[in-house]
Design brief:
Number of strands: 3
Order of helices and strands: EHHEEH
Number of helices: 3
Shape: globular
Structural class: alpha+beta
Strand order of the largest sheet: 1-3-2
Length: 79
């Protein structure tokens, strides 16, 4: 059974593997840098949530959609 909510690290890895054409790499710091620009859009669209005020979890389907829309310019940076 596939879970809707996963760790953000798992969602990031899925996103990077699904879209090699975008040139992103897996890893904690790559995800951190991505969040610097796109965190607001991901939160606003309920693609990520902060769990226990310590770490990010992600709704996998929404994360994949919003991340793609964000990094391809359909959703403006920091919106």
């Amino acid at each position: 059974m596939e879970h809707e909510w996963v760790t953000a690290a798992q969602a990031w890895e899925c996103f990077v593997n699904a879209h090699p054409e975008l040139g992103y790499r897996t890893g904690k710091w790559q995800f951190h840098n991505f969040l610097r620009l796109h965190k607001a859009a991901l939160i606003e669209r309920d693609a990520i949530r902060l769990a226990k005020n310590r770490f990010w979890i992600a709704h996998l389907r929404r994360f994949l959609d919003v991340a793609f829309e964000s990094c391809t310019g359909k959703i403006p940076v920091n919106s």
